[in-house]
Amino acid sequence: MTEKIMARSKVDFPPDQSIGYLIRATYRTYIQDLEARLAEHDIPIGMWYFLRALWHQDGVTQRELSERVGSMGPTTAEQLNNIEARGYIVRKRSDTDRRKIHVHLTPKGRKLRDTLLPLAQRNNSDALRGFTAAEIETLRLSLFRIMENFGPRRANIGASRESMQNGKHKPVATRD
Amino acid sequence: MTEKIMARSKVDFPPDQSIGYLIRATYRTYIQDLEARLAEHDIPIGMWYFLRALWHQDGVTQRELSERVGSMGPTTAEQLNNIEARGYIVRKRSDTDRRKIHVHLTPKGRKLRDTLLPLAQRNNSDALRGFTAAEIETLRLSLFRIMENFGPRRANIGASRESMQNGKHKPVATRD
DNA sequence: TCGAATTAGTTCGGAGCCTAACTAATTATG
DNA sequence: CATAATTAGTTAGGCTCCGAACTAATTCGA
């Protein structure tokens, strides 16, 4: 009764018409779903991205991991501490450049891949249930374009340009 | 040199081909951009969503705010504490139901709207630079469909169905 | 070659968000 | 009407993530 609806006053820009709002909401439903799936295997979401990157390529440095996962140094360090404590990885100082630390999966960590990677695939295909291949490609391109619009230098946080397998990716403002 | 590329072995599912990964990456670029814009006005991102919801409709309860923003009770409580401490809102226990607390903007809080809301609009239009209206609509529908796929009961976290102004929204699995 | 700049990683502190467990008020039910 | 179930909000604690400031190693340039 004390509610005042200001909606139509002056500038009306309801939250749910903002693309940022939608992206956030979509992200949250996605992440909560994934979190629940991983919880069944006792894997905190924070570890997930790093394990995933390591299954894809083993032995990379922490710096490279940060880039691939899209996280900052401290986050990477912390998660690697957790993952190491569980015995999924070992860290080896580089011989040629002693600043660098290479991260290697242990057999235990490597074994996880077979049980956990299908989770990501199911999560993925569940998300896209009912989408045609063309719709998926359109969506992917749109997300790429948004990332590039937000900050060209950041557009490769989540995925590298060349990952668009069939180079249909329209190069938007490549910023030489 | 100690790197082993496992990419092509067995199940190859590179991170950047996962839609979840792309959504996460897009969300992160978006949120970091918004965070930076808000920082110039000394508004932490955590407050933003609640202020935004209150500018849209004032005097709602904390419960309603939680629903609109898509956050859980404790998050709402904490952010409202912060916002209240800054003098942007006051909380009033309901007379008719003393469990409820209605949240009201102060003049100070209301005034913020004029300076801050345009930020959201700029953030929005920057994100979508180069998109046609049709492309935007397609993207919005895709995000809605993903949310519904992840969990029908959650699909209204970020935006209510009727917010799709021109009812083109294909009702996917409306759950009776 | 030696000091400055850069690079890799860590430590610290804090923001944001959640779940679990709680209190208080209201509503439903026998 | 009394008790149980539900609803609104809070408190406590944990996970995720980041920026700032730091150490150590390497590279650059005068």
What does this structure look like?
Two copies of one chain form a homodimer. Chain A is mostly helical and 176 residues long. Chain A folds into two domains: 15-127, Orthogonal Bundle (Arc Repressor Mutant, subunit A); 131-176. Chain A has helices at residues 19-39, 45-56, 62-69, 73-85, 107-127, 133-150, and strands spanning 4-5, 57-58, 89-93, 101-105. Chain A has a two-stranded antiparallel sheet with strand order 3-4. In chain A, strand 3 (89-93) and strand 4 (101-105) form a beta hairpin. The structure holds a DNA duplex (30 and 30 nucleotides).
Quick rundown:
By secondary structure, chain A is mostly helical. Chain A has helices at residues 19-39, 45-56, 62-69, 73-85, 107-127, 133-150; strands at 4-5, 57-58, 89-93, 101-105. A two-stranded antiparallel sheet of chain A has the order 3-4.
